[in-house]
Amino acid sequence: MFENFHVLCYYGIPRDKIGRLYKEAREIFVYENGVLASKLEPYEILVLRKAIVIKLVTCCPLLLVGGIDCEFVSVVNKLKGLNLGCDWLARYLSVRKTYNWRRILETMELLEKVGFKEKKLSNLLKAYPDLVGETSGNKAYIMFEKFHKVGLQMNEIDKLLIDNSEMLLEKSVKRILEALKFLKCIRIEKQFVVRFLQCHMKHICSSSLLVPRAVWNRLKIRRDELCQIIKEEPLRLFSIASKTNKGRIELDSLDSRNAEKTTFLLKLGYVENSDEMVRALKKFQGRGDELQERFDCFVKAGLDYNVVSQLVKRAPHILNRPKDIIEKKIIMLIDYLVYPIESVIESPTYLCYSMKRIHQRFTMYIWLRERDAVIPRLTLGTVVGISNTLIVPYFVNTHPEGPATWENIKKAST
């Protein structure tokens, strides 16, 4: 043990750092005579300077355990290829951090995959040297994995990094992971998460968030209500969930939001402060002005105001779609299927189906109708609502060319 202690001292390792080596890599102190010196030599050949080896083994004692660390060698060779080299690496090594060379190598390779090659990667590492630390490098790798899971493509990740290079700072990576965890917890759709990351990355990088439960408990709302608030006004996330604002949650703003919705519901005939009104406030999603715009879509299409009022009271969900989607579905109904607007009265669930499903079902039904293979005026609920399993035997197979036509329709809409 003392022989190896003297080997380290003679090599130039500061005496006050040897305690760390003993704590993290005790095995090196029981090496036989000459073994420890033989382990230092390859690293000196690799990095060319003894001073760099001293910094390396002081910060990463495990490099001296076992054979030469192949992943560390790969990292060094990559850095040399980027004209950074070992001097640059040694400058940013710290005894206060730990290093996982496999994960650092994976992070560098992932950055190359998303478009940071050679000069771009070199500049990125110069700007954010913490990427060679396990703490931030490991979290950055996890962040990229999560980006892939929510549906971000490589070119989209590349653009995010180019437009928001600060997202690779250690504190930014931590905040991005917090935001992703928050959005997953409140069960927001992946498509929304992708748009949120693309549009609000600078806000995300500068805001540390509370956990969702703390937010919905403070606001006295349910998980799904918090989800809807964020979907309607994404930037509200940073005011109602920010740790810096936790003493100032925007209750007044929420009250104002409900006041607008209450005004709209009063017009529909709900009684103020009634149990029915309380239930309606939860069922109708959106601001009061948004709900009014959606309501007006049906009136402009030709339905009587009172008829629409009764319809939305019976089926509140029809106003929970964006105005432009409601308008498109009305146009599809009237101009494409050539059904009267009154059809939605008996089949309001039609408005809940996706545009893709509606277009596929309408196209198939029109094709069959033109060939007298189906009843000419089926309800919307039957045309659009029939399950994917039953549509083939009950509709598609009523004409010999139906199956081939149905497959072509589905292929054309993908």
* Total individual domains: 4
Q: Give the oligomer, counting copies of the same chain as homo and different chains as hetero.
A: single chain
The H-and-E topology, N to C, reads as HHHHHHHHHHHHHHHHHHHHHHHHH
Q: From the alpha-carbon coordinates, what is the Rg to the nearest angstrom? A: 31 Å
The biggest beta sheet reads:
none
Q: Please state the structural category.
A: mainly alpha
Shape: elongated
- Helical residue percent band: 55-70%
Instruction: Look at the structure and give the mean pLDDT.
Output: 84
Distance between termini?
69 Å
Are there runs of 5+ residues with pLDDT below 50, and where? 246-253
Number of helices: 25
Structure summary, number of beta strands: 0
Q: How large a portion of the residues is in β-strands, by DSSP E?
A: under 5%
Family: Belongs to the mTERF family.
GO cellular component, one term: chloroplast
Pfam families: mTERF
GO molecular function: nucleic acid binding
Can you walk through the features of this model?
With 414 residues, the protein is mostly helical. The protein folds into four domains: 1-97, no CATH class; 99-248, no CATH class; 250-352, Transcription termination factor 3, mitochondrial; 354-414. It has helices spanning 2-11, 15-24, 35-47, 50-59, 70-81, 85-92, 101-113, 119-127, 134-150, 154-163, 170-185, 190-205, 212-219, 223-232, 236-240, 251-268, 275-283, 288-300, 305-314, 323-336, 343-346, 355-370, 380-385, 388-394, 402-412. Residues 246-253 have low confidence and may be disordered. GO terms for molecular function: nucleic acid binding. Belongs to the mTERF family. Keywords: Transcription, Transcription regulation, Transcription termination, Transit peptide. This is Mitochondrial transcription termination factor-related / mTERF-like protein.
